[in-house]
Specification:
The protein is mostly beta strands. It has ten helices and 42 strands.
Length: about 625
């Protein structure tokens, strides 16, 4: 399967930034603080949703499998995906292809896998040693001396060694299939052991007839529909022939590799267990995909997610008419048709740090999609941080995030902003004044929410039920009790609010609240006085209860806050207390009619409490 992972973006569909917020969306992430200013916690989680697997250019192999089951022939399937092409027998194709099958920084050993008749030769075809039963040749290379070191063993015993400047060719006789001892794989054709100048590695290169090479392609299972195997044979043949003429790895001395970056080639180990593939190769012998009579490159991949992509939006360069986006309804069922990856924000940041193109110097703020191909596959995207913005290709983000394709989007958790606790200090003592507190927040979307309460040491105290909330301003309340209904002692408590959306994306916000029952049951009787000396409601009694000994102050003030009179300023013991106001100011003059405030404050050295209420003076 041709899966090049280093696309070079060029011009293509590009969305204006203003349009992105609506059509493609801007995905905001939280800051590194526990509860970020953007409304996301650093402990939040999100889901990356996507479609398809691999690059998306050319032939979708999942569709081939499903179309074959529905009766499609390979001669119809190939032109469906490679538009304007024909499947035909093509004369003059290369007979052989050179495949890099093994690489290492050390040495490579080759022996007879099936049969033992072979010879060890130089590049000029001069024989160095004959092979034979039990013989194994090991070759390494020294970049400093530019010489190959050869060791010949028979049944484990060294029987010869040489140092030469030439690459080493192992040529089998008829009936012998060579084996690369390092990984145990066997191959038809010759094996060349050579130094790769581009990769700086030793390579085993299999020079093999293309028709024999095709029998060892392990891209799809042997159990596939026969028309699907024939389709695979044709595109694999075309790719091998194209690369034989246009080598992808010329810097290392061969045309194609044996991995999914080129085509997954297993060799004889696969062939001997895949007789149906061999029959498919034979049934399509010499046939390739052509455009206007010319051999063309025919990339293919696992799953399209419902739509392939035009080549210029994946690997750059100019458009190719047979490699343009195609819609297909045959890409499902398959596990890669649609997929999702749940991630914590911490994991997301770690993955983004894998590349300098996406690593940020500051806090991660969000992503902005700048351009896509014809399909929704991302071509370019920005990662926005407090230290700056970087632009990278969709393939770069796919790689660092370890995703199956560039067709992905971020499903963010519910955002919670404008968090406040009212009151921030409350007294759940049953006096019907500040007996409960509420944590208010603004929710960005419909979600289920939950409140958990912990004491200052981190011990769990209480959990509310999970309740649904619409987007907008909302709250959750706490009555100051634990799960057993016991009233909690005075102290500081931590609120943790969790919001959960339909994909189980979670976000958190929190705040502190104080339970303070030092001062309670503050009352006045009566609430309206007429200090005219008639003996009826000339005074009011202000009463209160102290939970602990405290310095206590009682004052009467105007509605604007000016002090009218101080009624009490002294330490008091725990218990019930009261004081009287006769409607006079500090100078002994009866105050004017109106509404006045009185305040009772208490301070025990650890906690302070203040309560204010109204008194009406009437005439």
């Amino acid at each position: 399967m041709w899966r090049t992972h280093r696309p070079r973006p060029r011009s293509g569909r590009r969305f204006p930034v203003k349009m992105v917020a609506v059509a493609v969306s801007v995905f905001l992430l939280g800051q590194s603080a526990a509860y970020g200013a953007t409304g996301y916690s650093s402990s939040a989680s999100l889901t990356i949703t996507g479609r398809g697997r691999a690059h998306g250019v050319g032939l979708c192999m999942t569709s081939v499998m499903n179309m074959s089951k529905k009766g499609w022939k390979y001669t119809s399937m190939l032109p469906y995906f490679y538009r304007g092409t024909r499947v035909q027998y093509k004369k003059g194709l290369p007979r052989n292809v050179r495949v890099g099958v093994y690489r290492t920084t050390g040495s490579i050993s080759v022996s007879g896998g099936i049969g033992s008749s072979f010879s060890i030769r130089t590049a000029s075809n001069r024989q160095i040693w004959p092979g034979g039963a039990g013989r194994e040749i090991t070759v390494s290379y020294s970049p400093s001396t530019k010489l190959y070191s050869l060791t010949l063993k028979r049944n484990g015993t060294v029987i010869g060694s040489k140092r030469i400047a030439s690459v080493v060719r192992i040529v089998p006789s008829s009936g012998t299939i060579l084996k690369v001892v390092n990984d145990g794989r066997m191959y038809r054709g010759n094996i060349e052991l050579r130094w790769g100048a581009a990769s700086k590695k030793m390579w085993a290169v299999n020079s093999v007839a293309i028709e024999l090479y095709l029998r060892g392609i392990g891209e799809e299972p042997e159990s596939w529909p026969f028309e699907g195997l024939k389709t695979l044979a044709v595109v694999s043949r075309g790719y091998a022939a194209y690369r034989a003429l246009n080598p992808k790895h010329s810097g290392d001395g061969f045309a194609i590799c044996n991995t999914g970056d080129c085509q997954a080639y297993v060799g004889y180990n696969y062939e001997r267990n895949a007789p149906r593939l061999t029959k498919a190769v034979q049934a399509t012998s010499g046939r390739v995909v052509t455009y206007r009579g010319a051999l063309v490159v025919t990339p293919y991949f696992s799953n399209s997610g419902g739509m392939t992509e035009s080549i210029q939006y994946v690997w750059g360069g100019s458009a190719k008419p047979w490699l343009r986006a195609v819609r297909t309804g045959y890409a499902k069922p398959h596990e890669a048709y649609s997929w999702s990856v749940p991630l914590s924000f911490q994991s997301l940041r770690i993955r983004l740090a894998r590349s300098s193109a996406t690593k940020l110097s500051g806090d991660l703020v969000g992503f902005r999609i700048l351009s896509t191909g014809v399909s929704p596959r991302i071509r370019t995207m920005q990662v926005v941080g407090s230290g700056g913005t970087k632009t990278a290709s969709g393939a770069t983000f796919q790689k660092v995030l370890n995703l199956q394709s560039t067709w992905f989007r971020f499903d963010m958790p519910p955002r919670m902003t404008s968090v406040s606790v009212v009151p921030a200090s409350f007294s759940p003592d049953g006096d019907y004044a500040a007996d409960l507190t509420r944590v208010y927040f603004t929710l960005s979307e419909y979600a289920r929410v939950n409140l958990r309460v912990y004491d200052a040491s981190g011990a769990f105290v209480y959990s509310s039920a999970w309740v649904p909330r619409r987007a907008g301003r909302t709250y959750l309340a706490w009555h100051g009790k634990n799960g057993d209904g016991d009233r909690m002692p005075d102290g500081r408590y931590r609120f943790l609010v969790t919001a959960l959306d339909g994909r189980n994306n979670r976000n958190y916000t929190g705040a502190w609240v104080t339970v303070n029952t030092l001062l309670s049951f503050v009352r006045e009787s009566p609430s309206t006085i007429t200090p005219n000396g008639d003996g009826i409601d000339d005074t009011t009694t202000i009463s209160f209860v102290l939970a602990r000994p405290a310095a206590t102050n009682v004052q009467v003030k105007t509605s604007s806050g000016s002090i009218v009179r101080s009624l009490m300023n002294q330490p008091l013991a725990a218990g019930s207390h009261d004081t009287v106001w006769d409607g006079r100011n500090g100078a002994g003059t009866t105050v004017a009619a109106g509404t006045y405030l009185y305040s009772v404050s208490a301070d025990d050295g650890t906690y302070s409490s203040l309560r204010s209420r109204r008194i009406v003076v009437s005439r």
